[in-house]
Design a protein that fits this description.
2 helices; alpha+beta; 4-stranded antiparallel sheet; 5-stranded antiparallel sheet; about 200 residues
Length: about 200
C-alpha cells in the first residue's frame, strides 16, 4: 500500500526536525568545548602581563601638559628596557607594570617622578680655556660632559661671553609634568630586579 503524499510530507518534516535538533546539539557541544578550553587557558595560562624584571618592548609618545609632543618612537623601532632596572624615569617604569601584551594606556607623570625639579645650582660658568680654541659654541647647543664617576651627562650651552661659557646641566624636561601614550608590543619574562636610581630616558 502506497503512502499518501500527506504522510510522506509528515515523515519528511520529522526527518528535517531531527536533523535540525542534531545540528543544534552539535553546535551546543562545540560551543561548550570552546568555552571550557578558553576558561582553562585563561586560568592556567593567563595573558602575559608586565612585572618587575621583565624585558619589554614599547612604543610611546611623550607630551607636555599642552599636548605638544616632545618625543615619540611610533612608526620607529620600539624602546627595549628591563622593568625596575632604573633605565627609565620612575613614573614611566612604574606605569608599565601590570600592562598586558598589545595593551595601550595614557599616563600622566608629575615632574618629581619624571626628571625632577629644575635646579639652578646645575647652571654654571666654564672658562673658555677648557674648550678647544677652534670650537664654536652657540646657545642651545648640547655638549657631552664626563662626570667624576665616569658617566656621561648632556649639558646645554646657555650663553657664551668673554667670561666663559654658561652651561645648564638640568634636563630640558626638568620641572615638566609629562604625559605618555604607551603600548606594550613585546614581553620577555625575567627575574625580579631591584629598582635603581633612574636615568634621564626616554
Amino acid at each position: 500500500m502506497k503512502k499518501s503524499e500527506k504522510e510522506k510530507g509528515k515523515e519528511k518534516k520529522a526527518t528535517e526536525s531531527k536533523q535540525q535538533y542534531k545540528l543544534i546539539g552539535i553546535i551546543a557541544v562545540v560551543a561548550v568545548i570552546i568555552i571550557c578550553v578558553a576558561a582553562y587557558l585563561f586560568v592556567f595560562n593567563p595573558p602575559l602581563s608586565v612585572a618587575v624584571g621583565d624585558t619589554i618592548n614599547v612604543t610611546y609618545t611623550g607630551m607636555f601638559d599642552n599636548k605638544t609632543v616632545f618625543d615619540t618612537n611610533v612608526n620607529s623601532s620600539p624602546l627595549t628596557f628591563t622593568v625596575g632596572s632604573g633605565q627609565l624615569i620612575h613614573g614611566f617604569d612604574a606605569a608599565v607594570v601590570g600592562m598586558k601584551l598589545n595593551e595601550e594606556k595614557t599616563v600622566s607623570i608629575p615632574y618629581m617622578q619624571a626628571y625632577g625639579a629644575y635646579n639652578p645650582d646645575l647652571v654654571g660658568i666654564v672658562p673658555l680655556s677648557q674648550f678647544p680654541a677652534n670650537q664654536t659654541l652657540t646657545p642651545g647647543e648640547k655638549l657631552y660632559e664626563r662626570s667624576q664617576d665616569g658617566s656621561i651627562a648632556i649639558v646645554t650651552v646657555v650663553n657664551v661671553t668673554n667670561a666663559g661659557v654658561a652651561i645648564d646641566a638640568n634636563s630640558p624636561l626638568a620641572g615638566q609634568n609629562l604625559t605618555f601614550d604607551i603600548k606594550v608590543v613585546g614581553i620577555t619574562k625575567g627575574s625580579n630586579v631591584s629598582a635603581a636610581a633612574t636615568t634621564p630616558t626616554p
